[in-house]
Write a structure and sequence with these properties.
This protein is mainly alpha-helical. The protein folds into two domains: 3-97, Rna Polymerase Sigma Factor, Chain: A (Orthogonal Bundle); 132-196, Arc Repressor Mutant, subunit A (Orthogonal Bundle), CATH 1.10.10.10. It contains eight helices and two strands. It has helices at 8-22, 26-49, 52-69, 80-113, 133-144, 149-160, 165-172, 176-196, and strands spanning 117-121, 127-131. Strands 1-2 form a two-stranded antiparallel ribbon. The N and C termini lie far apart (57 Å).
């Protein structure tokens, strides 16, 4: 545990803040945020996520969850920091899972369009795979027209425009974690429509 949160003077002050926050005092909760946010970001989230933007998102989600669950916190003579660190660690794990799903979804998109990759002879007479670009564009556009506009936008930004996940999230005005979920659902919808055509 962070040593500065073990000081008896701090623990006494912290208990008062927690008690007030449990009664709905947002100023007290704000004081707790200011006390713990930096340590959670630097010592828990950034080392786990290795990405400042993702760590900031996870930090915000940590305190949203903490506010919602504060009534369930039991004072056992140790700082609130340990409880918050567990929440933050879980948020980091959730983000890792979301990234993994997004990476698998990207691979799935390549498999979706694979039937439109036609083997043709190359210059050295070896068989190489090349894209039938007009057919691919037409097929993808047709399928995209049949899915929810938000899903279509997510796929266009990420795969057709090649934007980073961070940029895609900014364009859709959502958090990075939310964008990952939208993209996963978008690719599921895309795959369903693609398979529907046989």
């Amino acid at each position: 545990m962070a040593s500065e949160f073990q000081d008896p003077g701090w623990l006494k002050q912290e208990r008062k803040l927690v008690s007030r926050a449990k009664r709905g005092d947002r100023d007290a909760f704000g004081a707790l945020y200011r006390a713990f946010a930096g340590a959670l970001y630097q010592r828990v989230l950034l080392p786990k996520l290795q990405n400042p933007a993702a760590a900031e998102d996870a930090l915000a989600e940590t305190f949203i969850t903490a506010w919602q669950r504060l009534d369930g916190f039991e004072d056992r003579g140790v700082s609130l920091f340990s409880w918050l660190a567990r929440i933050a660690s879980n948020k980091a794990i959730d983000l890792h899972r979301g990234r993994g799903r997004a990476d698998r979804a990207a691979a799935n998109l390549e498999r979706l369009v694979e039937p439109l990759l036609a083997p043709v002879p190359g210059e050295d007479d070896d068989l190489v795979r090349q894209i039938d670009a007009p057919a691919l564009r037409a097929k993808v556009a047709e399928v995209l027209d049949r899915i929810h506009p938000r899903y279509r936008r997510a796929i266009e930004l990420r795969f057709l425009q090649g934007l980073s996940r961070d940029d895609c999230a900014a364009r859709l005005e959502v958090k990075l974690g939310t964008f990952d979920v939208v993209l996963l659902r978008a690719l599921r919808a895309f795959r369903k429509e693609w398979d529907h055509d046989g």
